[in-house]
Each structure stands twice: as C-alpha cells, then as structure tokens.
C-alpha cells in the first residue's frame, strides 16, 4: 500500500530537521482513505509493514525512508532529496 503525505505538524523543540515532526497526515490515492500517523507509526509502516509513503513538493515526488535517529525513530525523504519536501508540507 502507498500513501501520499498531505500535511505535517511540527513542534518547537530543539530537534533538527524531520525529527521535529509530531504528526503526519496522509491519503491513500487508491482507496481515498485519509488518516494521520505519528512518526513512529510511519516508521513502522515503511520499515516493518513494507508500506510506501511519499511526498509531492514543487512538482517532484520523493519517497520517505525510515530512520532510527539519535533521539527517536522517524521518517525523512530519501537520500539525495531535500528534507524541505517533507518539512514544507502544509500544517495539519
């Protein structure tokens, strides 16, 4: 199953980059189902469930990858694509 990220909620913590994301809104283009997930849930969806999540930004599409970061498990755009593709999504 694939989901497209539609929005993110970020906190005002000291965490850098995508680790500041607290909620990820998404839509399954095939079924039309929408929902929201924590970064940990999205990590599990990609890493453990074989799911695919992607973001569209400024005409480009980038897959998300699961990252076991220094402070927590989270997701970010695939290497070679700017984090801003995910960070610049509208607020949920």
Q: Can you give keywords for this protein?
A:
mainly beta, six-stranded mixed sheet, 6 strands, 92 residues
Poorly predicted runs? none
SS class? mainly beta
* Cα distance spanning the termini: 22 Å
Tell me the number of strands: 6
Oligomer: single chain
Describe what this molecule looks like in 3D.
- This protein is mostly beta strands.
- The protein is built from two helices and six strands; from the N terminus they run E-E-E-H-E-E-E-H.
- Strands 3-2-1-4-5-6 form a six-stranded mixed beta sheet.
- A hairpin with a 6-residue loop joins strand 2 (21-27) and strand 3.
- The longest helix is centred in the middle third of the chain and has 9 residues, at 39-47.
- The two termini are 22 Å apart.
- The model has no long low-confidence stretch (mean pLDDT 89).
